[in-house]
């Protein structure tokens, strides 16, 4: 299975409506068939992406005591700041009992994370490192957060067109940007055998909770997407410089009445010949940057008008974005 590729350049030519329609249809088709799509020729410059990865590497190279100056708040309700290796455990179960949660945590995720949200989100305030620790980091990441929000809204508008919605802003208008989340991820170098024997994991199979996710990854590789024609089989989603891997999240799947797929994915061993280093077969460290687009907290997620009709009733009860978010967050910490 190859990820579908959508060249997004034509979306930025409003005078050519047929070209924009073609981009929208290609995007929706990919989200129906696979749930993942590689977007090329988007509007974030290569120089910006290179600089962003430079900041991510600089962040995670800081001593532990410096990173702990912006720790993830205790508990599961707030999702901001620095999460040290072993704190977070990604799992697909919803509302697991204590025994299930304990068993899953016996296999830790070997990654560290720094989470950033909107500066307007008073419910989940950002946990910034002191300016003296990493000067200009806050200013740059705030700007990059806004760049991603802009591109994400373009994608939501294209999806609205592809879903035959009369209002091109039907989806984008429910995403002010205040509920989005920027994750900076560092997967640690570990012995390959530990991953192969599942003594540790990088990131277990899961679906995303958001409307859509935009993913930027380095050249290491390791992202794997479930082949929906062969459930349980995962195939590599190879990195391509400057592309965005976009995938449908659970909220958009509910919104679209399952017309668009929220596909399970995971992070495993890198794919390339240089994936191991030295006689102990240490895996390469990996850096990636997902950006989760979510509607505002009080948005009611109910079936999109064009995705229901006679003989096709709504499959899900309406739920607010925040209620769904709380349900999933409680499983991770």
Note down, in words, how this protein is organized.
The protein is of the alpha+beta class and 333 residues long. About 2% of the residues have low confidence. Strands 1-2-10-7-14-5-4-3 form an eight-stranded mixed sheet. A four-stranded antiparallel sheet has the order 6-11-8-9, with no helix packed on it. It has a two-stranded antiparallel ribbon with strand order 12-13. The radius of gyration is 19 Å and the shape is globular.
Features:
333 residues, four-stranded antiparallel beta sheet, alpha+beta
Structure at a glance:
The chain is an alpha+beta fold and 333 residues long. 27% of the residues lie in helices and 20% in strands.
Strand content: 15-25%
Largest sheet: 8 strands, mixed
- The global form is globular
How confident is the prediction overall: mean pLDDT?
Answer: 88
Query: Secondary-structure element sequence?
Result: EHEHHEHEHEHEEEEEHEEEEEEH
What is the β-strand count?
16
Rg, rounded, reads: 19 Å
Secondary structure: elements and pairs:
Blueprint: E1 5-7, H1 17-33, E2 36-40, H2 46-60, H3 64-67, E3 81-83, H4 98-104, E4 111-116, H5 137-162, E5 181-187, H6 192-196, E6 203-206, E7 212-217, E8 223-226, E9 234-236, E10 244-248, H7 250-255, E11 265-267, E12 276-277, E13 282-283, E14 286-293, E15 300-301, E16 319-320, H8 321-329
Parallel strand pairs: 1-2
Antiparallel strand pairs: 2-10, 3-4, 4-5, 5-14, 6-11, 7-10, 7-14, 8-9, 8-11, 12-13, 15-16
């Amino acid at each position: 299975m190859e990820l579908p590729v959508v060249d997004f350049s034509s979306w930025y030519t409003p005078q050519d409506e047929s070209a924009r329609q073609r981009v929208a249809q290609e995007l929706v088709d990919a989200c129906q068939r696979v749930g993942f799509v590689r977007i090329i020729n988007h509007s974030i410059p290569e120089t910006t992406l290179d600089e962003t990865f430079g900041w991510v590497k600089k962040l995670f190279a800081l001593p532990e005591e410096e990173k702990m100056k912006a720790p993830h708040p205790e508990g599961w309700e707030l999702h901001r700041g620095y999460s040290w290796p072993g704190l977070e455990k990604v799992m697909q179960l919803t509302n697991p009992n204590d025994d299930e949660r304990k068993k899953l945590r016996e296999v830790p995720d070997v990654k560290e994370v720094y989470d950033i949200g909107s500066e307007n989100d008073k419910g989940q305030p950002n946990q910034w490192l002191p300016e003296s620790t990493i000067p200009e980091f806050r200013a740059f990441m705030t700007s990059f957060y806004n760049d991603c929000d802009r591109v994400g809204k373009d994608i939501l508008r294209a999806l609205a067109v592809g879903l035959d919605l009369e209002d091109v802003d039907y989806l984008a208008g429910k995403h002010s940007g205040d509920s989005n989340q920027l994750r900076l991820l560092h997967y640690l170098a570990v012995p390959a055998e530990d991953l192969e024997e599942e003594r540790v994991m990088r990131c277990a199979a899961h679906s995303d909770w958001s409307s859509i996710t935009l993913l930027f990854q380095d050249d290491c590789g390791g992202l794997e997407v479930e082949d929906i024609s062969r459930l349980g089989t995962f195939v590599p989603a190879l990195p391509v410089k400057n592309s965005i891997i976009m995938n449908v999240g659970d909220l958009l799947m509910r919104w679209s009445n399952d017309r668009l797929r929220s596909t399970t994915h995971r992070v495993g061993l890198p794919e390339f010949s240089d994936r191991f280093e030295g006689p102990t077969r240490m895996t390469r460290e990996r850096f990636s940057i997902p950006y989760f687009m979510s509607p505002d907290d009080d948005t009611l997620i109910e079936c999109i008008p064009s995705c229901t009709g006679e003989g096709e009733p709504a499959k899900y009860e309406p739920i607010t974005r925040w209620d769904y978010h709380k349900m999933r967050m409680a499983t991770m910490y």
